[in-house]
Amino acid sequence: AQSVTQLGSHVSVSEGALVLLRCNYSSSVPPYLFWYVQYPNQGLQLLLKYTSAATLVKGINGFEAEFKKSETSFHLTKPSAHMSDAAEYFCAVSDLGSGYALNFGKGTSLLVTP
Amino acid sequence: KAGVTQTPRYLIKTRGQQVTLSCSPISGHRSVSWYQQTPGQGLQFLFEYFSETQRNKGNFPGRFSGRQFSNSRSEMNVSTLELGDSALYLCASSLGPAGGARETQYFGPGTRLLVL
Asked: What b/e readout covers B40-76, taking b as 16+ CB neighbours within 10 angstroms?
C-alpha cells in the first residue's frame, strides 16, 4: 500500500533563507507525486506535480522538487523564503493501487520569521 | 474561468442528523473527487465521480454517499452524523477521462462541518 511521510510537522525559517520540506513515499508501482499548499480557511492549491518526466520539477511561486527514486523522496525546496510562503504544505502520492486517488501526508506547517 | 465552488461554506448540525454538501466543478470538468480533512486523520479520500458514476471509493462507512448530476455538479451526503464527522470537506474537479490525480485536480475552498 502506498503511503507518504512528511518529516517535521512544523518548520521555521527566516525570510530569505532556504526552504526545505521533506517528503518520503512508498509505492509499489511508479507513482505520481504532488505538493499542495493550503492557506488558512482555503482549499488546496497545486504547487507542482511529478509524472515520470523530468526528475526535477519546477512549480509555482519559485518552488521546485526533485524525485529521487533510490531514496523514495520528493523534497520541496525554495531558495529564498517570503513571508507570504507561510502556510500548510502537503505532499501526496497517487498510483494505480489507489485508483489514482490522492494519498496525502500529514502536512508541514511552514513559519517564516522576519 | 470560475473555480470550484462549494456550498455551504459553514454548517452546524447535531448528532444523528444528516447533511448534504454541494460542489460545482470548473466549467468543462467532468470528474469530481471528495476529501475529508480533520486534525487527527488529515486529508482522506472519500470518493470520485465521473459522468454520473462513482469511479473510485475510499475507506469510509456507508453513511457517506455521493452522487453526480448530468451537469457534473456533485453532492455528498452524510447520514446519522457523529461527532467525529466534524471536518473540512473538500471537493476537487478535473477534466476527467484519465481518472484520479492523473489529471490536475483543482480544489474548492471547502465546507466546514461542525457536529454538536
From this structure: eebbbbbbbbbeeeebbebebeeebbbebeeebbbbb
